[in-house]
Specification:
Elements lengths: L4 H38 L2 H35 L1 H10 L1 H23 L6 H30 L4 E2 L5 E2 L1 H5 L4 H30 L2 H35 L4 H8 L12 H21 L7 H27 L9 H6 L2 H6 L12 H27 L4
Antiparallel strand pairs: 1-2
Helix pairs in contact: 1-2, 1-5, 1-7, 1-11, 2-3, 2-14, 4-5, 5-7, 7-8, 7-11, 8-10, 10-11
Length: 385
């Protein structure tokens, strides 16, 4: 028995868009202060202008990702209030860290934008560094929660249910999941900027083409390094999932002759094909000194392919453990009935599982989706880039 399809679809949609934008935000918030630092070091007005424009789009994407993050949380709370109550009680420390860093991120975004040219370069770059750091600490908290949902390391039921945070950070799936996420985000953000600057390269005059070619090559290099590291930590994460056989065999079982209860090997293979396509994009960018027509075509699809890879990977990680919120059926089934029911996605709130509410939710999602589409259109087409 699986979760109701409309619930699964709505949660997957809101979470998928949120996580894609969060990955893009994490990378861009790293590159903006880096570009500013290089611009100041070289006294490079062109690079400084690119950092300013990128900051404007970064603030916009962060706002939209926050909206979809809120939508995801509200949907979980509506459909699975028992799970949210239990998870919030047990994992309040990593959740609290993530929420605190979200608040810090908002503050540093505002300060970084409004202090530009209003304070010293050292202070402004320090704020930018703090903005980037907050971006890495947000997923640190959330990935600790996701790792707990893989393997409930640190969970104690007596004298009352609680989570030992130190033990939880020793979770065998936490470190590889977090590091894979970080470098996957950097790879996706790098290739998205390869796409953006390749489009600008094609549309500007000869006097600026060299500068945009330099940016394309720089971010392709970042993308290659990040993608290679993401593959390493991804392999580590795959091995760590042996500690949760239900999820491991759902993902890899069909490939090794031991299929799990739900076969998601096709989604894993799709992700690997998308990763391969990213390497092809990078190869094509560096195939010759300039950007010929065929190279431009590859560069233009690099960003969308990279962001699709993030989406597919997150959906794979999420759905391969359903209908259990904790990916260990033997643990879930051994818990008291009240906890067991809270940890099953099939136990949806009947007051929220109604066709009329699905229609209303879908209607409200339409303008949000249109805003995302408009944002990326402007990102790619704005002549001021």
């Amino acid at each position: 028995m699986q979760a109701p399809l409309p619930i699964s679809a709505l949660i997957s949609l809101s979470f998928g868009i949120h996580i894609v934008l969060v990955n893009l935000d994490m990378a861009v918030a790293t590159f903006i202060p880096l570009m500013e630092w290089l611009a100041r070091k070289r006294n490079d007005d062109f690079l400084m202008d690119r950092a300013r424009v990128l900051m404007r789009y970064y603030a916009s994407t962060y706002a939209i990702s926050g909206v979809f993050g809120t939508a995801f949380t509200v949907m979980l709370l509506s459909f699975y209030p028992q799970f949210i109550g239990l998870a919030g009680h047990l994992t309040w420390v990593p959740f609290g860290l993530a929420v605190l860093m979200i608040a810090l991120r908002f503050l540093t975004i505002v300060l970084y934008w409004y202090l530009w040219d209003r304070t010293s370069a050292q202070v402004h770059l320090a704020v930018g560094g703090l903005m980037a750091l907050a971006g890495y600490l947000i997923p640190f908290g959330f990935r600790a929660v996701f790792a707990f949902l893989n393997v409930p390391t640190g969970l104690h039921l007596k004298p009352k249910p609680y989570l030992d945070v130190v033990e939880a950070l020793m979770n065998p799936t936490f470190a590889p999941l977090y590091l894979k996420s970080v470098f996957g985000a950097l790879a996706a953000g790098s290739l998205m900027l390869v796409t953006v600057y390749a489009i600008r390269y094609e549309s500007v005059g000869d006097e600026l083409r060299g500068r945009y070619l330099e940016l394309v090559n720089r971010f392709a290099s970042y993308g290659f390094a990040s993608l290679a590291l993401m593959m390493f930590f991804g392999a580590w994460y795959a091995v760590s999932l042996v500690t949760t056989p239900y999820k491991f065999y759902n993902i890899f079982g069909a490939l090794i002759g031991k299929p799990g209860e739900r076969d998601f090997s096709w989604l894993f293979l799709l992700k690997m094909l998308l990763v391969l396509a990213q390497f092809v994009v990078i190869y094509e960018v560096f195939r010759s000194d300039g950007l010929e027509s065929s190279q431009l075509s590859w560069a233009k699809v690099g960003g969308p392919v990279a962001l699709t890879t993030v989406l597919v990977g997150e959906l794979l990680n999420m759905h391969s453990q359903l209908p259990y919120f904790i990916a260990q059926p033997e643990v879930v089934n051994s818990l008291p009935e009240i906890f067991k029911q809270a940890l099953l996605t099939t136990n949806a709130n009947t007051l929220a599982d109604m066709p009329g509410l699905y229609i209303i939710t879908a209607i409200f999602l339409i303008p949000l989706l249109a805003a995302v589409g408009a944002l990326f259109y402007l990102l790619l087409k704005d002549n001021r880039r």
